[in-house]
């Protein structure tokens, strides 16, 4: 079979007419000299209406965009107008042949609309979180007053209380304290998700920072008769470069979660430099000249009951927990959601290893250098 004869017998216009994409043939001045039915359908008109008109009439700066797509060998997404003046979004690809441009395009209006909606939703969420952060004092101040004054009254500042008055004040004090704690965690989560929070990097002693956090949690540990075990033998250099305040918030939230889940035993905090397998499996950026001193791994292990497989799903996502019938995990997921968001801001990774009656180990992998 002579392939040259086969190909020479093919009608090129018939091929163009039957292509799945819309096809335009443009003259050097941008005038449309040929168009297929698919192109006419996208613009909801007929071929004869498009032929002879200028591409710029339906695609603003269309001829220039076609030339750009041909030169860059990349498609271009832009807006276009149908003959009923309705705006659509198209993806343009082009190839120059002598002086003409062969242009193919696809209608990407549905996809562009979805992307715009996602972008709008993300913007609204950030604005909502920013508003909550700015109103945090107005939200917390009344609760702080209720908690403070009820505590003062319980201590006898207003005189002797009857048994019933004391009972009711204890209820008010307990519930207001719990609500204040919940709002502080919710506002911290909102701040982490907002556009207001950006890491402020500096050098600090990670060992000393974690020791101070452990000291702040001594009373909570003592109340449950729990013990701390701190192991940092695997750490080469105590000084890291990161945002100390964000690291404190991350570790504090993880410790609170572990203490809450543990009734007896030990909470172990292990601090070490991460090996390459941890870094690569986490999916975060690895510099070409990898050195395990570039990353620090913070592991917090507890001897609690652990988490079942279904509990691990959405553990770091408060919005997922809202859709579950059991709402007890909401506060925990708000704290862990804050951890997840802050770790991402620090270009790190966080994950949990757990099983029923096996306790839980929360791992935080952070760059030790910037």
**Tally of individual helices:** 16
Helix content: 40-55%
What's the helix-strand series?
HHEEHHHHEEEHHHEHHEEHEHEHHHEE
User: Which consecutive residue ranges, at least 5 long each, have pLDDT under 50?
Assistant: 1-10
| CATH classification, class level of the largest domain | Alpha Beta
| Strands, total number | 12
Q: In the CATH hierarchy, what is the architecture of the largest domain at level 2?
A: 2-Layer Sandwich
Rounded to an integer in angstroms, the radius of gyration calculated over CA atoms is 31 Å
The main pleated sheet reads as: 5 strands, antiparallel
If you consult CATH, what is the topology of the largest domain?
A: Heat Shock Protein 90
């Amino acid at each position: 079979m002579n392939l040259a004869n086969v190909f020479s017998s093919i009608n090129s216009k018939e091929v163009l007419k039957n292509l799945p994409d819309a096809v335009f043939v443009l003259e050097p001045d941008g005038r449309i000299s040929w168009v297929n039915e698919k192109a006419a359908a996208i613009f909801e008109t007929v071929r004869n209406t498009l032929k002879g008109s200028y591409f710029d009439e339906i695609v603003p700066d269309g001829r220039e965009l076609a030339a750009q797509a041909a030169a860059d060998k990349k498609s271009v997404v832009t807006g276009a107008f149908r003959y009923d003046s309705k705006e659509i979004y198209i993806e343009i690809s082009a190839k120059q042949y002598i002086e003409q441009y062969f242009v193919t395009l696809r209608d990407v209006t549905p996809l562009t609309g979805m992307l715009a909606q996602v972008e709008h939703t993300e913007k609204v969420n950030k604005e909502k979180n920013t508003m909550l952060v700015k109103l945090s004092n107005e939200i917390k101040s009344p609760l702080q007053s209720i908690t403070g004054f009820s505590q003062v009254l319980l201590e006898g500042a207003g005189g002797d209380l009857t048994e019933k008055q004391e009972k009711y004040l204890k209820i008010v004090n307990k519930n207001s304290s719990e609500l204040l704690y919940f709002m502080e965690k919710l506002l911290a989560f909102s701040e982490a998700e907002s556009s207001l929070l950006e890491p402020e990097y500096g050098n600090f002693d990670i060992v000393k920072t974690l020791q101070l956090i452990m000291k702040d949690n001594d009373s909570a540990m003592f109340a449950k008769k729990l013990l701390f075990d701190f192991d940092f033998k695997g750490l080469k250099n105590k000084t890291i470069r990161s945002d100390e305040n964000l690291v404190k918030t991350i570790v504090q939230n993880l410790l609170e979660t572990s203490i809450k889940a543990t009734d007896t035993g030990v909470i172990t905090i292990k601090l070490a430099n991460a090996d390459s397998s941890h870094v690569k499996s986490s999916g975060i950026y690895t510099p070409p000249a990898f050195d395990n001193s570039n990353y620090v791994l913070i592991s917090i292990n507890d001897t609690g009951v652990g988490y079942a497989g279904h509990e691990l799903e959405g553990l770091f996502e408060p919005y997922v927990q809202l859709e579950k019938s059991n709402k007890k995990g909401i506060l925990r997921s708000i704290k862990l959601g804050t951890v997840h968001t802050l770790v991402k801001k620090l270009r790190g990774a966080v994950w949990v290893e757990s099983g029923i009656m096996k306790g839980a180990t929360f791992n935080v992998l952070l760059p030790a250098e910037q």
